[in-house]
Structure formats: structure tokens, C-alpha cells
Backbone:
């Protein structure tokens, strides 16, 4: 079986256009006339990216949300989407379309077209969605690879909620109210499509956190050719996460290595700190400085000011 | 099980943007600044759109070709593509990528990105590709719905070759040389990406033939609110098709109801006839006038000048 890493490595020899960004980024950026278009495509597979008994409207919501998250992380305003639907059982499909309609409206991604396909009997289904966004004309589109020595590292929102929600769905015990909220974070992520475009002018590098904070910080460090240190105490946790799992070192490590956060991860020069906080506050969104960029390479994890070994599992590898 | 028809009907209530063209067209058309972008997304499913033992490089070729065909049918020049790869066995994936690289070059669709996903063990795989094209600035993008009374109906290339190639793969006997050529038409369709843009200025309606000539003419007639009559004798057949299946009424009906042609189907005022022929000749491509648009509704099939009943099976419905 080909690994994702090997395949992407082989694809890199095909995707040589500069617009492909070496397949290192969340999205492609293509210049059309005076406009910079951002294009992203994500696929959800039954039994891999969603659970067969997840409510179908939430599967559709997630399909749109993960692509909206990619656009936001490139500072792009959402324009439109197309998707491919694998036909299934009638009531499931109807509920899926209800969720799709709500998500397309919520994330400002009007549905323009796509494809419908029939799967062989009993086959797990998959759904692909392509989202198109428009980046600001007069500034570069932040990549993963722009973090510079001296930058601060930031995240939006709270980390680990979706991962804990998935654990709850798999049987982990938690108080009813916290459990419900965490499961909703797993099933219906809500990346803010305005936050990325608003923060992009300040960011030297930006991406979304989809596979786990640690692995995604590692990717930013590698793409940027720098070291990024983060303090595990600084990782922002939600009240529901704390109620269900606490906030000790192990709980924080769990949060930082779970996937499906769909929060923004960005590096920015320290002089932009005040404007970053103001921008997020104006949109009623939380941002937290969790680390710093320095000379060297890779991710360095700190606990109470001391470097600690990285866990074996730093996030979700496909 | 939801039918494709029911699903598209439900999707139409979601895809209300004018750029979606009522989901009646092969592609979406979106205005970005001064540019008209054409977007299409097609999915190939193992065991449905390709055979499990089709050579993997031809599966990749077809994935790119079917999308290139949609762009050409909207008169759009190819710009770029993204695709989603379902990981499989190593040597299969490597061969697939070889075909993908060749097709992206051949169809001028540089690969910009996409997604890679792991499927559950043993699941049939599917591949989605989104292609982006650019339509001419100073003219409308032809839709399926523009055919006008008095127009002539045209097709490019020859009809039925791919369908007969599929029949050969399924055991139909044919001479070796014809069989090989027909199978290649099924496995590696070669829509001309220059022909659609060159013909678009003359066409009042244009689409590609993917599900069978008759069903696609029927779709154009319905979308345009006109009747379209075609003479079965005028349907262009290749020498290989004639050698393998003859050219009597039944053979022609088989050709006109088989899928996977990826030829252009277009309607144009009779005064453009000479320029249409010159344009195709300059690109070394064949075009054939096969019918006419008149008042009324739907497809009317003629044989030796007389209307004949439509067959039960007019093409491939998904």
C-alpha cells in the first residue's frame, strides 16, 4: 500500500507549477488577471473521515467546513464550491443535503455544481468538495513556509475539543453537557471564514490545524526551515475540555496531538501583537500566543520552561 | 437508493446561484474580475466508471480527459486541475501517476493540488478531479440551453467507438486491429481542448457527449425548449467501428446510444456552416452536421427521411 507521504512525494514531480506551492500548502494559489484565486479540494471517506453512524447533515457540514478552513488559512474570502456526491440511501441523502445547504450558506460557499456517482453495492462512500476563494489583491497569500526567526506563534480558538469529542463517541465517559459540546466540535467544526482574511496581513506563515497541533507546527517549522518552540501550558483549552479531561501535562498532550481542530496556526512578528489581538477581538474570536520561532529546525516542546521529548504520536498521519 | 435525477433535483434548490446554471450544464461559469472561469468536477469510481483491471495509467488519463472535455465544450481554455487520490497498491498508484502526468501535460491542465485519502480495506476506490478553465472574455459561454429553431446540429469526431471498445473488453469479437483501436478510444479518450474554444463563437448551444449521443441530444433539446431531429444515417462512424460492427440501422443505433464518446455536440445557425468546417479543418478535426433544430420538444430520430420510434435505451443514466 502506497503511503500518503510517498504519493505526495511522487506527485511533487508532476505538480511543478509555482501555483501548486510544491504541494506543501493547504491550497493552490493561481493568478487570474488581477485576482489571486485560492483552490482547495478535500475528500471525506466513510469509516475513515467520518463514522458511518454520524448524522448525515453533520457529514455534509464537515465537508464544507474543512474546505472553508483551508481558504481562511490562506486569507481568502470564500467564493464558491463544487462537490461530488456518492449516492446512498434516500433519507440519508436528503439529510445530507439539508446539512450541505446550511453549511454552504454559513460558510458563504454557494454550490455551483459537481458530480453524482453511484457506488458499487455496499461500498463505503466518499465525498469530495472543491472550494474556490479570492485572496486580497495587494498582499501575498501566506504559506506554511514563511515563518521567520523572532516571530511569535499563534493559534485561534481552543485545541483538542474535536479529538475529545471523537473519544466520547468511542466510549470515553464525560459529563453530559461537556460531552455534547465536544461531540459538536468534532461533528460540526466552525472555522471562521472572516478571521483568516483579517489576520493574513499580519502573518508571515499561516495554515489550519487539521491533523493535530504538534504535527502541524512541525510541518510549519519544516516548510519554513526554522525551529518552533511551543509551551504546552500555553495551549488554549476550552472549559468543556478541562471539565472532561483536566489540564495537566497528559491532558494537554492529548489536546495537542488530536486532529480535527480546524483552528488557525500562524506566525507573526512580535510588533503585530496588539493588532492581532484587536483584530480577533473585533470578530469575537480567541487567539493565543503559544510559542516562538527561532534558529534551528523542527518542533521543540516546552513544559514549565524546560524542553521535553516529543511524544511518539504527534498527530494524525493519513 | 436515491436516483441521480432525484438528487440533482434536490440539489437545484440549493444551487441557486446563476453561476450554477441550474445544474443543467457540464460546468459552472463564474465571473472573476474581467475573466469568466469555468469549473467542472468529475469522479471516476472503480467498477462503475472504470474496470478494476483497466491499466491504471488509462484510468488517470480518463479522469483528466473527461474534465478536459467539459471545459472544451464550454469553449474554455484549460488552466489547471486538482484531484483527490484514493491510495491503493504501490505499483498501481505509480502507474496511475505516470498516466496522470502524461494527461496533465497533454490536456494543458497543470496539477496544482488536491487530497490523498486512505480507503477502508478492500473498498472500491474513487478519484475526483476538478478542472479550471478560462472562457473568452468577449463572448458568452455556450450552454446546453441555447439551441434555436433553424440551427443545424453538429458533432465532432466519430460516435460509438468507445462503447464498442467496452463491448470488446466484455467479450465481443472483433478483428485485432479494429479491437485495439476501439479499446483505446474507451480507455484513453482524446477530446481536443482547442476545438471547443475555436467553435464556441459559432455555437448557440454546446455540450460534450458523454452518456450517449441520443440521450445528450435529448438533454440539449429539453434545456433549449426545442425539438431536435437527427438522421441516423448522418451519425459519423469510424472505419474501425464499421469494420467491427457494420453501419446498418442497428449498428448506428448502438453507436448513438453508447457512452464515453467525449465528442462535442453543438447547434449553430446555418450561416456559420462554412466557418465551422474551416475551423475544424484547420485543427485537423472532423465535424459532421447530423440534424436540425425545429419548433416542438425533444429528440426526433429519422431513418431514411422518416421519423422512427426512439429506442427504450437512449444512453447511459447514472
Residues:
Amino acid at each position: 500500500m502506497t503511503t500518503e507521504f510517498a504519493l505526495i512525494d511522487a506527485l511533487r514531480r508532476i505538480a511543478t507549477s509555482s501555483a501548486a506551492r510544491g504541494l506543501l500548502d493547504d491550497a493552490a494559489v493561481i493568478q487570474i488577471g488581477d485576482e489571486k484565486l485560492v483552490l482547495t479540494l478535500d475528500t471525506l471517506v466513510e469509516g475513515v473521515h467520518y463514522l458511518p453512524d454520524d448524522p448525515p447533515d453533520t457529514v455534509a457540514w464537515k465537508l464544507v467546513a474543512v474546505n472553508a478552513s483551508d481558504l481562511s488559512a490562506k486569507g481568502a474570502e470564500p467564493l464558491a464550491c463544487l462537490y461530488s456526491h456518492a449516492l446512498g440511501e434516500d433519507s440519508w441523502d436528503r439529510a445530507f443535503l439539508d446539512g450541505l445547504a446550511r453549511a454552504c450558506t454559513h460558510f458563504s460557499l454557494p454550490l455551483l455544481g459537481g458530480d453524482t456517482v453511484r457506488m458499487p453495492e455496499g461500498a463505503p462512500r466518499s465525498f469530495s468538495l472543491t472550494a474556490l476563494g479570492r485572496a486580497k489583491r495587494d498582499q501575498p497569500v501566506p504559506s506554511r513556509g514563511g515563518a521567520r526567526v523572532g516571530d511569535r506563534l499563534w493559534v485561534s480558538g481552543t485545541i483538542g475539543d474535536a479529538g475529545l469529542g471523537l473519544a466520547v463517541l468511542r466510549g470515553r465517559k464525560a459529563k453530559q453537557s461537556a460531552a455534547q459540546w465536544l461531540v459538536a466540535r468534532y461533528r460540526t467544526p466552525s472555522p471562521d471564514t472572516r478571521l483568516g482574511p483579517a489576520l493574513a496581513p499580519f502573518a508571515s506563515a499561516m495554515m489550519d490545524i487539521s491533523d493535530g497541533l504538534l504535527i502541524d507546527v512541525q510541518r510549519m517549522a519544516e516548510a519554513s526551515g526554522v525551529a518552533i518552540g511551543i509551551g504546552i501550558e500555553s495551549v488554549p483549552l476550552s472549559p468543556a475540555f478541562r471539565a472532561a479531561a483536566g489540564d495537566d501535562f497528559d491532558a494537554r498532550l492529548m489536546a495537542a496531538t488530536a486532529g480535527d481542530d480546524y483552528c488557525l496556526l500562524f506566525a507573526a512578528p512580535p510588533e503585530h501583537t496588539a493588532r492581532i489581538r484587536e483584530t480577533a477581538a473585533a470578530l469575537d474570536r480567541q487567539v493565543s500566543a503559544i510559542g516562538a520561532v527561532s534558529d534551528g529546525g523542527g518542533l521543540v516542546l516546552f513544559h514549565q520552561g524546560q524542553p521535553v521529548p516529543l511524544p511518539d504520536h504527534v498527530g494524525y498521519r493519513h
Notes: The longest strand of chain A covers residues 35-45.
